[in-house]
Amino acid sequence: MERAVLDHVAIGTRDLTDGWQLFGGLLGGTWAYGGDSPGYWWGQLRFARGPMIELLTPTGGPDSAFLERFLTSRGAGPHHFNFHVPDIETTLAKVRAAGIEPVGVDLSHPHWKEAFLHPKSAHGIVIQVAQQSGPGPRPPAPAELPAPGGPSVLALVEHRVADLDGAAVLFERVLDGEVVRRDAGAVELTWPDGGMIRLARSAAEPLGSIGDLQFTRAAGALSPADLSQAEGLADRLGISIQVRPG
């Protein structure tokens, strides 16, 4: 039976250059696809394994209000998880059975059907579920995207939650994660595309509940100079990263 997959982690930012340099130039991400949507532009980078990183930036007009509010209230940072699902109506039935009412449900497009779970229902972060038919838009890579560095794997995404048991139910039973480790402080789940999320118990769900993005590099550890640059770029993007040889 087909399962949901963790397709990407989206980061909102006003300056795309930081993301291109960090995830492309230093961590080896290569252009996947992207394009314009009403109110924002988005682009995705693919790694050797694991979910993609998506960068979102507002482009003005009333449709950019959701992203403008996000950036004004907290600055650059993780915006949402995206899960691709084989049958969105089945997924939405599971969402509602779990006591969550999805928002922004749009099933009108034959090639892209989507819905969202509000952060208050999804333990601190927006979750987008989508059913895609056919390839996404494939404009050329942005001119600002540097040549990719050594290939990396986005091995694990940490998500800090106050209600660990409730979050585990959502990510396992509704979003099809397979639990590979569970203890009093954390639950780790995997998806068929190599995505892994660690749900880590937190005293409260902080603003921007994603913790570390953990990368491994076949080419070995970053040099001290590159690691320092990566940490500075990550800080400007409102994220925390770990980079290990793998």
List the helices and strands and how they pair.
Elements: E1 5-12, H1 16-26, E2 30-37, E3 40-46, E4 52-58, H2 65-74, E5 77-84, H3 88-97, E6 103-106, E7 112-117, E8 126-132, E9 152-161, H4 164-174, E10 178-182, E11 186-190, E12 196-201, E13 210-217, H5 224-236, E14 240-245
Parallel strand pairs: 1-4, 5-8, 9-12, 13-14
Antiparallel strand pairs: 1-5, 2-3, 3-4, 6-7, 7-8, 9-13, 10-11, 11-12
Question: What would your notes on this structure say?
Answer:
This protein has helices at 16-26, 65-74, 88-97, 164-174, 224-236, and strands spanning 5-12, 30-37, 40-46, 52-58, 77-84, 103-106, 112-117, 126-132, 152-161, 178-182, 186-190, 196-201, 210-217, 240-245. With 246 residues, it is an alpha/beta fold. The protein folds into two domains: 5-132, 2,3-Dihydroxybiphenyl 1,2-Dioxygenase, domain 1 (Roll), CATH 3.10.180; 152-245, Roll (2,3-Dihydroxybiphenyl 1,2-Dioxygenase, domain 1), CATH 3.10.180. Helix 1 (16-26) runs antiparallel to helix 5. The model has no long low-confidence stretch (mean pLDDT 94).
- Sheet with most strands: 8 strands, mixed
Helix content class? 10-25%
Named CATH architecture of the largest domain: Roll
Q: How many angstroms does the end-to-end distance come to?
A: 31 Å
CATH class of the largest domain, named: Alpha Beta
Provide the structure class: alpha/beta
Kindly report the name of the CATH homologous superfamily of the largest domain: 2,3-Dihydroxybiphenyl 1,2-Dioxygenase, domain 1
Net shape: globular
Summed up, the domain count is: 2
Uncertain segments of ≥5 residues (pLDDT<50)? none
Contiguous helical run count: 5
Looking at the structure, the CATH topology of the largest domain is: 2,3-Dihydroxybiphenyl 1,2-Dioxygenase, domain 1
Q: What is the residue-mean pLDDT, rounded to a whole number? A: 94
- Order of strands, main sheet, comes to 2-3-4-1-5-8-7-6
